[in-house]
Amino acid sequence: MHRKKLALVGAAIALAGCGGPSRPMATVTSTLQPVVTKTVTVTVPPPPTPLPKKTMETDGTYRIGTDIEPGIYRSGGRSAQGESDCYWARLNSLNPTDIINNNIGNEPQTVALKPGDVAFLTHSCQPWVKSD
What we know:
The protein is α+β, with helices and mostly antiparallel strands. The protein has one helix at about 1-15, and strands at about 55, 60-65, 70-75, 85-90, 100-105, 110-115, 120-125, 130. The protein has a domain at about 55-130. It is built from 1 helix and 8 strands, in the order αββββββββ. The N and C termini lie far apart (about 125 Å).
């Protein structure tokens, strides 16, 4: 039995050496560079605030000093599309019932919008144009 084990060990050694000539293994070396990220911050100024206009071409409520400049404005009266007479009101607030002064009519209209006024409401009027 000892011979059998010896024969098996010898066969195993012989087979291990039968792989052909041994070649040296190639060694691959690579250098990894760390990934560097760069954050760039760009500050963009906000767009300029539009200046108050000197005309009011449509019905609506305009804020004095924001939407329109204070001053004297004129309208030709009732607009061609107006179903009613030209109505306007100077306002103490954005509430349409908080009236400082108002008027209604077909004829040309003139109004003085003051810096202390909060808003101006217009309905069924031709365009208002600042005249001063």
